[in-house]
Amino acid sequence: MSDVKKEFVQLLANYGHVGFTFVASIIIGLGGGIYLDQKVFDDRTSPWFTFIGLAFGIAAGYKTLLEILWRNKEKEEKPKRQD
Amino acid sequence: MEHPILFISIILEKLGLPIPHGPVGHTFLEQLCAPYMTYTWLVMAFLFLVSKLTLGNLEMIPGKGQNFWELVIGGMDDFFADNMGREMADKFFPMIATFALYIAVANLIGLIPGFMSPTSSLNTTLALTLIVWISHHIIGFKEHGLHYYKHFIGPVWWLIPLLLPIELISNLARLLSLSIRLFGNIMAKETLLAILFMLAGSFFAPLPIMILGVLVSVVQAMVFVLLTVVYFSQAQAHAH
């Protein structure tokens, strides 16, 4: 593989999963909230846990997003420091 | 939709073994003969036989086969060492390299008519992901003991109710995103190819999708391996 192609594939590998991870966090948060509302508390607390779960899910999504950014920033800065 | 022709299933059917008609069989034998199982065995046999044939006798001056494997293994080794350090790379190289080779071959095999990707079944990808997810927790626990769980509760005690759910959700999201991403990409590729073959197979309509399919297969195998490496190194490095 040529260098440009290699870099392209690496970039895709680094950032291609951003969207999916974000959505997965939100789905897990929302699903957990709905489960708490409907199964654990028998609809007595609805819709509060759904909203709380959604909020936590979105927060977790942003956290994973920032983690990916920080990780790649660190990796980019490392070779520069060695110069 | 018309079922794609899978030659292993046809051979097994001729031999009198039950082939499940839904996605999952009912009896144990039916589950064993499900296409994703048989093609998993095929990929395993392929990897085993090819490496056995090309690496049967190692030589000082590598021939064609050995040269290829040295390139592949050397490239992966460098990649792991870059991302998680020499020591970790040596320790987990067999596991992650096996995943990489298996996923890459399993993705690419689906491009050949008559074959299917075992990774286009959620069962396969979820199994792979569970292994990675559980082993990254084991690595963290082995490295730091109970301190490993400290990074789940954040730096200060009054942030625990806020940070604990966030950390738990983002950790569980790894499980979901890692498995469903691989499954979704490969399943989409397979389905699209099947539909295009059915609609305009004689006009070479699936060809552009096949070219994209090669890219998707390689990139998805690489994403899986890269994330495995990242999770392992994070679990090992977490020392707050």
Summarize the SSE layout with pairings.
The complex is a heterodimer of chains A (83) and B (240).
Chain A: H1 3-15, H2 18-40, H3 48-82
Chain B: H1 7-14, H2 28-32, H3 35-54, H4 64-84, H5 86-109, H6 122-144, H7 160-200, H8 207-237
Helix pairs in contact in B: 3-5, 4-5, 5-8, 6-7, 6-8, 7-8
Q: How would you explain this protein's 3D organization?
A:
The complex is a heterodimer of chains A (83) and B (240). Chain A has 83 residues and is mainly α. Chain A has one domain. Chain A is built from 3 helices and no strands. Chain A has helices spanning 3-15, 18-40, 48-82. The longest helix of chain A is centred in the C-terminal third of the chain and has 35 residues, at 48-82. Chain A is elongated and about 60 Å long. The model of chain A has no long low-confidence stretch (mean pLDDT 81). Chain B has 240 residues and is an all-alpha fold. Chain B has one domain (7-237). Chain B has helices at residues 7-14, 28-32, 35-54, 64-84, 86-109, 122-144, 160-200, 207-237. In chain B, α6 (122-144) runs parallel beside α8 and α7 (160-200) runs antiparallel to α8 (207-237). The radius of gyration of chain B is 21 Å and the shape is globular. In chain B, 31% of the residues are buried. Chains A and B meet through α1, α2 and α3 of A and α7 and α8 of B.
